[in-house]
Here is the input.
Amino acid sequence: MTIPAITVDANTLIFGLLAVVSLGIFFNLGKFKASKSQTEREDRIDWSVRKYSFSTYFRGCLISGLGIFLIFSLLGYLGFN
Amino acid sequence: MSKHSALDTFGRSGNPAFRDHFEGTASNEDTRLSGVMTLEGAVNKTGILLALCFSSAAVTWALCFSSAAVTWNIPNTGLMIGGAIVGLILGLVTIFNPRQAAKLAPLYALAQGLFLGGITVIFESQYPGIAVQAIGLTFGTLASLLICYKTGLIKPTENFKLMLVSATSGIFLLYMVNIVMMTFGGGEGIGFIHSNGIMGIGFSLVVVAIAALNLVLDFDFIEQGAEQGIPKYMEWYGAFSLMVTLIWLYLEILRLLAKIRSN
Here is the structure.
């Protein structure tokens, strides 16, 4: 019985290792509470209330979409392709 | 009148997924019946969803890969597109029914896995090795941002949330316009979205950055949910929102790497 040789190239090794280590960090660190500098501050997001109205988010959406479109179109027009 | 002045001033959150669970009597009843959300529970459930997503992706992958000749077959389009559509529907239903997240989120992960397996095969057949690079970078980003969040290096605020939600929906709007242009305009859609030049790569980098920062909002939602003791089923909802962001991030990293390697 011959055992087939398992070949792993550098790409798979490096990025595979990165994925495994990162998942390890996520599953370990994720279970601990965040630091006090994160949890004990005044300007945290309050998920129970809506600070900005729907129209503010809608305006933000239009401005962002149009802004990204205009910036990239302008840069493309100037020759950055 | 609410006992919280902020509720009187600004009203409850417009997001139906959040407003009933951080405050109110419904959550108290749910909490009494099912227990409270914990960080460990949310992380474990994210692990379950990731495992389910990988399992179904492996099915599509295995159907396409012919190991004898080391060649790729064309992915089963029905399986792939079906997975994407079912995943989209399940995702939308879950967003508006967080109480059902325990049932719907695993199905969502399975359906999206079918789609991701197929799309990964398409990219991998053109650019060998791209799949492992995208997976590594996606999880690398997840871990880096988790460290930044837990240590307080990145502090999400209401303005941060406004900017990020605006940018995310702005990109969604651009993608929709692009699809409409491609379908009805008979053209190539918005040029820089598909271009593999500096503009195309720059746009993909912006989208990857915005997708990655969405992870910080997910971490904050889970952290505060655990702190405030919202109902246990919200662990599934937290894990689901993390999965949605991770899948988007993975797809954008895949596109970015493909653009870079096609030059």
Remarks:
- The mean pLDDT of chain B is 86.
- Chain B has one domain: 14-261.
- Chain B touches chain A through 75 residues (CB under 8 Å).
